[in-house]
């Protein structure tokens, strides 16, 4: 039954959209007005590109500041923030491992077999010491998190802290929020 025949609205049939299909020119006009639609003009595309760049910069700045809303899921939560501050407030051997490896690489180029041997031994010693230190550091982090956040699952938290401790301080993301030795803030 139609609206014209009896004055009542049409029955809505399940699976149907319940409204008339718009005319093509009306749909195209609505699409052109839509602000979220991709720009079609050169000036519109340039403006959209600038807006995208600005949004990405703002999101990156918020991420580097450690704002919870800008962090990816792997970095969110109070336990992860505690771990980041815990790691950033200490010096670890792991953060110096990359400069040690670069030094060893330079020393192995020297054509003296004794210097090359010492460099390789130094590298393996630094690697073993870094690994042992990382294992103990992981245990300490897990113990601290268990004490401060009793309901927080501990899976992966020690590795999260250890991997952060192996990065050079200025290369860490999000940026360190505490300075070295500032343990009362964590």
Question: Can you characterise this structure?
Answer:
The protein is an all-alpha fold and 186 residues long. It has 2 domains: 24-65, no CATH class; 74-171, no CATH class. 58% of the residues lie in helices and 0% in strands. It has 7 helices and no strands. The protein has helices at 3-6, 24-33, 42-65, 78-88, 97-109, 113-148, 157-165. Helix 5 (97-109) packs antiparallel against helix 6 and helix 6 (113-148) packs across helix 7. The model has no long low-confidence stretch (mean pLDDT 85).
Brief synopsis:
The protein is mostly helical.
Order of helices and strands: HHHHHHH
Mean pLDDT: 85
The major β-sheet equals:
none
DSSP helix fraction: 55-70%
Helix vs. strand class: mainly alpha
* Sequence stretches where pLDDT stays below 50 over 5 or more residues: none
As a whole number of angstroms, the C-alpha radius of gyration is 29 Å
Give the CA-CA distance, first to last residue: 71 Å
Beta-strand content bin:
under 5%
Domain module count: 2
| General shape | elongated
Count of helical stretches:
7
Count of beta strands: 0
